[in-house]
Amino acid sequence: MTNDEMWKAVSENDASYDGIFFYAVKSTGIYCRPSCKSKLPKQNNVCFFDAAEQALAAGFRPCKRCRSDISDYQPMKEITGKAKQLLDESFYKRCELNHKLQQLGISHHRMAELFKDEYGVTMSEYVGNLRLEEAKRLLLHTDDEIIEISCSVGFDGLSSFYRFFKKGTGISPAKYRKEHRK
Fold first, then answer.
1. CATH class of segment(s) 78-182
2. Residues near 11 by Cβ (< 8 Å), separated by ≥ 6?
3. Is 47 a catalytic residue?
4. CATH 3.40.10.10 fits 3-62, yes or no
5. Which of 22, 60, 94, 135 has its CA 20 to 30 A from that of 4?
């Protein structure tokens, strides 16, 4: 790969070159991945390395923004993983869930975008799926009243639970229990 090709990748923040080479900026003493979103340096201040170890050996330190010292740094993936874990643990506690999601330090709108990109469904759809699966499980494996099941999966009212359940399964909770219980 030529220096011109590498410079083009750096100037376009091309993530497909991450791990193939690293670039260092002589004026700052920092080395980065090609996808680093830091300010584009002057081309004459840049040198290229095949491996992070080479940049370190040449006296450059890793970038704190792109974490060029870590082989697989994906902070947004980590955040969406934490959000998914919170949804799994607290899907039935709406207020507590919203509070915990806010503590991740990212706006709700941005979290929704990242979650959809990572998992292919919105957070709302994901929570709905969790609620539906838990409701079905409770209907089949407990003798709890439907109103109790409704509350335990996060619904404030029975009518909203009935609408939700019927939309997800095509039948009412009582009919589901009757038809699927063994």
1. mainly alpha
2. 40
3. no
4. yes
5. 60
